[in-house]
Write a structure and sequence with these properties.
Helix 6 (139-158) runs antiparallel to helix 12 (306-315). The chain has helices at residues 2-10, 14-19, 32-38, 77-92, 123-127, 139-158, 213-218, 223-239, 255-265, 268-271, 282-295, 306-315, 335-344, and strands spanning 28-29, 47-50, 54-60, 66-72, 101-107, 110-116, 163-165, 174-176, 182-184, 191-193, 200-201, 220-221, 244-246, 252-254. It is built from 13 helices and 14 strands. It has two domains: 2-116, 2-Layer Sandwich (Phosphorylase Kinase, domain 1), CATH 3.30.200; 123-355, Transferase(Phosphotransferase), domain 1. It has a six-stranded mixed β-sheet, sandwiched between helices. It is globular. It is α+β, with helices and mostly antiparallel strands and 360 residues long. The longest helix has 20 residues, at 139-158. Residues 326-338 have a biased composition (Acidic residues). This is PTI1-like tyrosine-protein kinase At3g15890. Keywords: ATP-binding, Kinase, Nucleotide-binding, Serine/threonine-protein kinase, Transferase.
């Protein structure tokens, strides 16, 4: 149905397209010529990033509006469906913490999606990427981003009709506008959940390190899978560690495995991003990390809902942007921390936030 609608829309003439600016559709249908001009023929210097199914370019329209244009790599049936899903979902949802769809182009072998341009790029670029060295995200901004992303996801789970499971929550899909307001993006893997349905069984999509164990193993997807991914995102935001890191000898360790023994000991100084140089709110950090461990519980029934996540984050004081508490940062993690994590992981089975990666 979605694909048929897109084909009908994109078959219109330029004159018909302009006449449809009378809001028959919640988006604009661009011409290829417009987007080629805006992106300087998809010039390499305009590239903002590249994902599994497309490349995103910066552009500027003739009216001077900055845009981001995702260009699908290849016109396979799979890519066509993801294009249709993303246009369909973004066309129906409106929330301050969701990336807005400006429009699209679908013709010949080209599938292009046009979004608002996010001048502060993505959360991952500030935690691990090219912007990480330019400006360290201070603690109040990290709280603001976490709350904003949580509110966007809560809207998808609880207010959108039908409800929407994102399936690919990660730092690169949390974009930041000029005020560092979080915008959840990239709905190519999203699933619409009919009323009364608690979970779906489907092919596994998403990113390693963020996948809930029940989804990674059996393809059972529900809103709690997004909650798990969001828990990983919270840990990543607080610690600036990647979801999966390589240890000497080629051993891989997930962020929950690293964090769990430190949480048990209350070593918040060892958990926080050392680049903050001690400038963070200890209570907010503790609440954020403990919430992250609840979100990543191996039992999906024990995870909070995204509504509850929003309430907990806001109640911790992040919404009030309190004065940052200066605390003393402990020593960098060494071999003792790594070995301690291995020794104590087995003890965490009895905890409500036990390590779940062993189930994968």
């Amino acid at each position: 149905m979605i694909k048929r609608c897109l084909c009908c829309i994109t078959g219109e003439s330029e004159a018909a397209r302009r006449s449809n600016d009378s809001h028959d559709y919640p988006w604009e249908i661009y011409t290829l010529k417009e987007l080629l001009h805006a992106t300087n023929n998809f010039n390499e210097s305009n590239k903002l990033g590249e994902g599994g199914f497309g490349t995103v370019y910066w552009g500027k329209t003739k009216k001077g509006v900055e845009i981001a244009v995702k260009r699908l790599k290849a016109m396979t049936a799979k890519a066509e469906m993801e294009f249709a899903i993303e246009v369909e979902i973004l066309g129906r949802v409106r929330h301050k913490n969701l990336l807005s769809l400006r429009g699209f182009y679908a013709g010949g072998d080209e599938r292009l999606i046009v979004y608002d341009y996010m001048p502060n790029h993505s959360l991952i670029s500030h935690l691990h990427g090219r912007h990480a060295a330019d400006r360290v995200l201070d603690w109040p901004l990290r709280m603001k981003i976490a709350i904003g992303a949580a509110e966007g996801l809560a809207y998808l789970h609880h207010e959108a009709s039908p409800h929407i499971i994102h399936r690919d929550i990660k730092a690169s899909n949390v974009l930041l506008d000029s005020d560092f307001t979080a915008k959840v993006a990239d709905f190519g893997f999203a699933k619409l959940v009919p009323d009364g349905v608690t979970h779906l069984t489907t092919r596994v999509k998403g990113t390693l390190g963020y996948l809930a164990p029940e989804y990674a193993m059996w393809g059972k997807v529900s809103e709690s899978c997004d909650v798990y991914s969001f828990g990983i995102l919270l840990l990543e935001t607080a610690t600036a560690r990647r979801p999966i890191e390589k240890l000497p000898g080629g051993v891989k360790r997930e962020i929950v495995q690293w964090a769990a023994p430190l949480v048990e000991k209350g070593r918040w100084d060892r958990l926080v991003d050392p680049r903050l140089a001690g400038r963070y709110d200890r209570d907010q950090l503790r609440n954020m990390v403990q919430l992250a461990m609840r979100c990543t519980d191996g039992d999906p029934e024990r995870r909070p809902t995204m509504r509850e996540v929003v309430e907990i984050l806001k109640s911790s004081g992040g919404a009030r942007r309190r004065e940052t508490e200066v605390v003393e940062v402990g020593e960098e993690e060494g071999e003792e921390g790594e070995e301690g994590g291995k020794r104590e992981a087995s003890q965490l089975k009895k905890k409500s936030w036990r390590v779940s990666s062993r189930m994968r």
